[in-house]
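Appendix B. Extra example for self-study. Work through it before the problem class; the solution is given directly after the inputs so you can check yourself.
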Amino acid sequence: MIELTFIIGSLVFLAASALTSRPLYNYSMKNYSKRVSSKYGFSVSDLHYSYDQMIYFISLPTTLPYVRSATKEDLIIEQDYSSFFYPSLKGIRISLKQDGKSLNLAYLPIGNFRLPHLDKLQQEGRIDEEAYLKISTTKLLQAGTLQEVREEVYKQLQVGRY
Amino acid sequence: MSKLKTFILYIILAVVLSQTANLLRFRVSVLMNKLMITAASLILVQAFTFIFGSDHLKWTILLFIGIAGYSFNLKGGLAAAVLGFLIISLQTGSVELFLLPVYLLVGAGAGYAAHYLNHQKRDLHQWMNMLMKQSKHLQVFREVSTTMQSTLQQDLLLKVILTSVTAGHGLGFNRAMIFLSSSDLQSLKGVVGVGPMDVKRGYEVWEKISEDRLKLRDLIEHNFDSNFTDPELNSILQSLDIPFTEHNVFGQALSSQKPVIVNKIDRNDDSQVLIHELFQTDEFAVIPLINQGKNIGILLIDNIVNKRPITLSDTENILPLANQAAIALDHASLYERIEEMALRDGLTGLLNQRAFQNVLNEHFPFEGSGRGPLSLVIFDIDFFKVFNDKNGHLLGNEVLMKLARVIEESLRPGHFSFRFGGEEFVVLLPDTCLEGAGDIAEAIRWNVEKASFPGEETQPNGFLTVSMGTACTDHPDVTNKNELIDAADKALYKAKNAGRNIVVSYKEFVGID
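Solution. Structure tokens for the complete assembly:
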């Protein structure tokens, strides 16, 4: 029983660490961003951003009938983290799930998610790359940003760029 | 305390420890983060020892060694093994040496496994990045090719090329400029550029694009809008005419047919100094635009805002796009020339019948169009058949060429002159009333009379003359294009009958009759 207690306790420790690491990582990024943004007098919610560097894996606009017929709600946005124990956001993946099948449509690496105001602060030497990454992670994970990314991908699939 | 209570207490402790570590470790550096979770595992082991005694420490310490190995790879695993052995020795008061190699083995195993997994993960990440980069370039190339194939308008092509090179979805350079070869291929003329003149302006434009949520279509439309492109940049660029020689970087790129990266300004090369001084750039790349050995122009790129160095890999990626652009620009230029040839008379260089129909359709005022009156002047050379019979057709052709020059010199911008056929000419005068058309026709007639033409002494009057008829859409009889031509033709006929070398207007002609 003693051995079992330790084994179960260890498993609980590992599982709890792994399961809560991502939400707590996000929470921590949010807190950090709040601190830095108030120091430099801006709000993360008001930051303008560009998802122009999103990488698409299919032609735009698409001619694939099952992609064209997809609705906005069929598009799934997933956050892509580096690991369970030491998570860092690598980017967001947009895929289409229809009839149980999944098709990768686009990927936005966090390094390609650029925010002009942060670019300016970085160029002025007020924030470093790490701070940039933390704030851009916070911005990318906001519900409004993710919704806009979904709408953007949908539009690109239907209309294309040019 | 009952066993169950102890069990529950220990589970709660495990949860509390993991959550406390998780709450704190993302606020610190990566190294501290790893140290904290490793330390938390050691605390869990120690708590177990505290509750259940040190009898189990020999094997429970493996949790700490394993997590240290996972977190810090081989070195961390080995260090944790030694530390674990010391802790056991201190806490149990006995040194059991056989444990050390076991711990070292576990630490090394965990460390190596973690190292291997991280290595695999890193490799996969690198592959992913590479594939995504290639996918992006392929996508840019595919989209730009499709767009280029859909147009022969040079202006649109230039916008597409510049946008694909500078936009975030594209190759993401801060600034791009296009120089096209002059018609004699002796120099390169600055045509159009996209990007800021300085860093501050660059960030302003960048912020504006993001703020307005501008899409690429908008960007293409606004590329030359002063809100997005520094007008100063284009003004300076368009004033540039760089000679094509082997001694400057432009010539080198074109003759070697390879991109040239300039990362240090060579003071011996005037073109590099010029670009550096005019555009405040210390590093740029010159990409040749070549189609089937023909020098089409140069694409110049730089990163004035973020100062990102331009690499060989960058220029390699841009080459397929540049080659495609060169083909499209060459085709557009050839098309423009062929179109121009199709609309011009080969002998006189004036516009031809086909062009006349286009211009007439474009400027004829119809109800509600809001256009002003359109006047038409039609004229021919008096006794030209006699001239040809006496002097031959070759001299006749020379006269026609000279006459075309006299006509063009007599007109103002916005007027159109056409060779209508044989020795017959037409002038279309948008926004001109009949009186104004009469004045212009009289000016042409007078200029022809006083100009000197080869062989004109054989003409009945001893000099070359023209008879002219004018008509205007403001006359009530003129309701369509055919009636306008017909009215001017009738006036010309009247001028011929009235003794030639005069201008007769349709209004006057009606009055006479």
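Self-check: Strands of chain A lie at 55-56, 75-81, 89-98, 101-109. If your reasoning did not lead you there, revisit section 3.
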